């Protein structure tokens, strides 16, 4: 890294990424090449990613001695924040799980937003990744090049790539109001979830498993757990999830995201017809920890107590 190279870094996270984001922010504030770290706080993973990406996407002074603006985004897996940061022009976000990932993506992709997993990456590993990400210039020898200088044909490609990437236009014409998941759901045939009355699902990929699920209003999922952790995004509707292992509850509506760790026992109540997209880290399975009548009684007792306390 050139001695006079300086960075201004914007950082944000969701709740699952907050502890790692705080550790990385503290580390970067002590880094000799970092002029300033702006901590944008904690929000839903897509909002946190957008807050950082807007700052990195904004045109800045391109003079040789200008401070370079970069971003750090953290969520549970590092995938969600990466997806949404990359929706902004001139933002090249990559999830890095190792310093080698950081060297490769800086060398090849000119990555300017570093995405990290708050669940899988410990603070000391994240600090090493961030240091490498700052220290590695674009077009540097990297593991992908065998740690040798790039051949001339690849060097010529890398010389022209940044301008070509930045010139890729915005979509023309009126925006498509249907998201990718909604397009996937169109025309989908569902199969009943036999042990969950009112529920239907369609598995769209096996191990790691992705599925589109819907439940009728009033349906209840008895307390259960899975072998693998899972992410879900509510497409439409309203539901409440009680994580009995953590003694926490979450009210979810359109666009909300929830990660449930492997083995956590949870029950669910649907207040409206609800549809959601869900992804397990491995194959889909389910183990019931109570029967349906017990679940209804527990939920009715809690909701009744909450109503009486108002």
TrEMBL record:
ChrR-like cupin domain location: 206-279
InterPro entries noted in UniProt: ChrR-like_cupin_dom, DRT102, RmlC-like_jellyroll, RmlC_Cupin_sf, RpiB_LacA_LacB, RpiB_LacA_LacB_sf
Gene3D superfamilies the UniProt entry points to: Jelly Rolls, Sugar-phosphate isomerase, RpiB/LacA/LacB
GO MF entry, a single one: isomerase activity
The protein, known as: ChrR-like cupin domain-containing protein
Organism (species): Urochloa decumbens
